[in-house]
Amino acid sequence: MAGEPTAGETSNHFGGRAETVIQARDVTYHHHHAPAPPPVPDPHQVPPGTPLFVNRTDDLADLGGWLDPDVGGPPRMALLTGLPGVGKRSTARRWAEDTRGRYPGGELYIDFAELRGPSGGGDLFVALERCLRALGVADRYLPTDLGELVALYRTRTAGRGVLVVLDNVTSPAHVRTLLPAAPGSAVLATSGRRLGELVLDGARLLPLEPLSAHSGARLLTDLCGPERIAAEPEAAARLVEGCGGLPAALHLAAARLLIHRRLTVAALVAELEQESGGLAALALDSANGMSVLLGIACRDLPADALRLYRRLGLLPGRGFDAETAAAADGTDPATARRLLDVLDTASLLEDAMSDRHRLHDLVRRHARDRAESDEPAAEREAALGRIVDHYTVRAAFADRAVMGNRLRITDHEELLTGQEDPFAGPGARDTALDWLEAERADALAVLRAAAAHGLDRRVWQLAESLTALYLHHRHLADWIESGTLGAEAAARTGEQAAEARLRSLLSRPLMDTGDHDRAREELEAATTLADASGHPVLRASVREFAGRYWDRYDPARAVRVYVDSLALNVAADEPRWRASSWAERSSPPATARPVSPP
Q1: pTM to 2 decimals?
Q2: Which label site among 9, 298, 300, 364 has the fewest CB atoms less than 10 Å from its CB?
Q3: Segments in 360-515 forming alpha helices (H)
Q4: Cβ atoms within 10 A of the Cβ of 213, count?
Q5: CB of 155 within 8 A of CB of 44?
Q6: 3-state class of 426 per DSSP?
Q7: Which residues neighbour 312 within 8 Å (Cβ) at sequence distance 6 or greater?
Q8: Distance CA 368, CA 374 (A)
Q9: Where residue 41 falls among pLDDT bands split at 50, 70, 90?
């Protein structure tokens, strides 16, 4: 009917307050309600990285090639792994900074170390809640069921590409669950563990290596200032070497130098180079130091793997294989391999691509400190004894494979009976020589440790066996040190034959390095000892070495010495000499040599 009021609705806004007006016939209703919430900003949660960031150019390029958001396609995952303190977190943050703005949905960040409970596992439920809040989901809408949380997370990340940076993940589920749904999204995670299962989901595993010496020096200079480093360049180089390319160690060293201005670089190096407790040099307090960082890496190790870790710290050398690890731990090689896999997964081993491994120097120091604090002294001594025995037996087998039935004082029947020969079968000689070469530095370290702990019988036996390597590859400095240690050990035990043998062998590298006076002294002592031992073949061998010396200075005397050597060998019915081209001559030439090494 004309003139009757009609129903209608209008909206008004007064000072930010919303009002809806509803009019029906003669009644007008005013309904006031809160304004719509402002739009949620895209998250940008990744913390800033350190401004003093060096190198990692290749690593950042690898990440860019794999996680490039412009490529599109299914979401991708990358995992940075490596030694504790190698710079995984700072590398991830630097890459996130370099790509900020390229992911239209923003960047999310979770540090699972903050969520880690007493059990050691990260709380995935809380991580999902934090991500959803950052994506605009109010608490009252957060599901209480994990499966529903995951479904909601995927829904909220399905629209635009998102970068998710996860620090300190300990489980593949952390990475898989937080993978955004939108094409072009990515998860960049860091972990102290090699989470190889993620490869099944298409993840790229990127292990970070320690910094080079050049990059380490640059970082230390940036941290301390060029004047401080230039004042002590040699000590600074030793400090960089002692930190082993770990950025965390370099930061700690620099912090100590900056906090304690009277502390010189040389004094800090002296602290660090102490064999026992040297890691204390890289600590600010009980909560900030390399020992704490490495302790976190060991926290989740099973008891048997942690025991092996401690005992590997007792190894005198830097490298080892599964058999050596088994000797240190007092177990069998199969068990040692299983436990080494656990340590490798925890990023505590280096060079694990073959059966030879090593501990980073700072990791080895931490393992040794743990052994000294957690292992009884008797067990530490027993472990060293097993290591020395292992090397002595293995080197004796290698000596036999390389040199055959040459003269040796070590009683192989006594030493090797009941032991498994690792060099039996075709190619034994080459295999044994390769093992000796691979173990050269570590075997010499074992020899030093055995001498320091008074294991004299094993010292001279191992030194004698190592000459099989030195006669072929002629590492002269090593030979001189090994022979000297062996001869001194034999002297302490009163083993005249062993001392004579080692001193005569020692004359060879001394002659080759031009130390002829000492070579003559060793030969004179060896001759006296060999004669006192009554060992006819040894007496002949020592005279042969003496003949080599006198060839250089007195050929006539060399002839007389060679004749004496021949007579002693013939009297002893030494078979090697029956094949000599001059064995039947009464006056052999001074330059004559036997047909095989003495």
Answers
A1: 0.84
A2: 9
A3: 361-374, 377-403, 412-416, 428-438, 440-452, 456-473, 476-493, 496-512
A4: 13
A5: no
A6: coil
A7: 320, 325, 328, 343, 359, 364, 367
A8: 10
A9: confident
State the DSSP code for 10: E
Biggest distance spanned by C-alpha atoms of the chain: 152
Q: Please work out, in degrees rounded to the nearest 5, the angle formed at the alpha carbon of residue 162 by the alpha carbons of 161 and 166.
A: 150
pLDDT confidence of 177, banded at 50, 70, 90? very high
Residue for token pair 């008074």: 454
φ, ψ for residue 475, nearest 5 deg: -80, 90
R_g over Cα of the chain: 36
Tokens of 503: 């001193």
What are the angstrom distances between the C-alpha of 560 and each of 162, 521, 555, 579, 596?
A: 89, 19, 9, 20, 20
129 contacts 92 by C-beta, under 8 angstroms: no
Which residue(s) pair with 369 in the sheet? Answer: none
The CA distance from 384 to 387, in Å, is: 5
Q: CA 270: distance to chain centroid?
A: 23
CB 348, CB 361: distance < 8 Å: no
Number of helices and strands in the chain (H, E): 26, 12
State phi, psi for 78 to the nearest 5 degrees: -135, 145
Query: Which residue carries 């200079």 as its tokens?
Result: 221
Whether 359 contacts 349, CB under 8 Å: yes
The tokens describing 117, both together, are 């409970």
Cα 116 to Cα 112, 124, 127, 287, distances in angstroms: 6, 10, 11, 17
Q: Which pLDDT score, from 0 to 100, does residue 350 have?
A: 85
Q: How many residues does the chain have?
A: 598
